[in-house]
Design a protein that fits this description.
mainly alpha; Peroxidase, domain 2; three-stranded antiparallel sheet; two-stranded antiparallel sheet; 5 strands; 48% helix; globular; Haem_peroxidase; metal ion binding; Peroxidases_AS; metal-binding; Peroxidase
Amino acid sequence: MSLAALRNTLRRSALNTSARAARPVFRQGAVRRLTTETPTPKKSNNNLLYGGIGAAVIGGVAFYVYTSNSDTAKEAGTAVRSGAQVAKVAANFVPTKEDYQKVYNRIAEVIDSAEGYDDGSYGPVILRLAWHSSGTYDKETKTGGSNYATMRFEPEAAHGANAGLNVARDLMEKVKQEFPWISYGDLWTLGGVAAVQEMAGPKVPWRPGRIDGFAAQATPDGRLPDASQGSDHLRNIFYRMGFNDQEIVALSGAHALGRCHHNRSGFDGPWTFSPTTVTNDYYKLLFDEKWVWKKWSGPKQLEDKKTQSLMMLPTDYVLTQDKSFKKWAKAYAADQDLFFKDFSAVVARLFELGVPTAQFTTSEPWIMANADE
């Protein structure tokens, strides 16, 4: 069976299942009660699921055995999983929003459990994991993105831009053990949503449907921003993902959170005085402070002349120098509500890069409740 034929079988199976499925009933609202119980699917949905993906699984297994351990076999295995996800969506055989809310609430607890780590929150490093696992997308080849969660594998886990993210992956692995039904891609991006919202940021629309891939699908190094570069580099990186100048500047606002670590990136220090709270201070500081090149043995970075306690990277400072970038950076410095609106929209897009629309379990993204709501 060819790979194309296998994919056709998957599509037909999903469509047939959809035709037989009863109209789904969606439960509304968010659940604040914490639990580690794994949701039990309804029996009627089991029958729909098995009917929809049985042929796909049989065909996929046969193809895998025939091709042994080849890359084609791995691709076929991923196609089976993707087709199975589509069939689940068609049959409504998926965890509910309430189930994902429980995962969100558990992540919120993890964020607040940092104590001695950095500035007392795991939020910034969890957001960075979601960002870096999504920002590898290439719109031309349609590779990378959040769908396969390939940072689980070497060498992607060891890419320079991902230094230190083992901290976040280990934290998320503990949550995964409590909720084994959630994919890594969904878990990591949901973690990014929780990080933004729990650190006083805007609501970020999100929906599940990502699947776990193989090491062969890991992305090459060089797809994430190099902080030592300028505007041309930023455009090359972000245009490849499908973003424009305004969205580049809005995404840069994530630097309101967290800090650089000399033993990871080589750079050192926080961008703002409140690195665990989402604000537009990042933009305001860019224009309000006097920035000078830091005199030290590390890589080229800037520090604020007044206190010498803050830092900006070359890719940050370019937002004040490039005419197109500067327009949007000034706008966000002047209006936090505008920044929140644009930041929410572009982060939601970032977290969906590389995910086929048919895999999503809902046509409209959800707004997850904050842990204290």
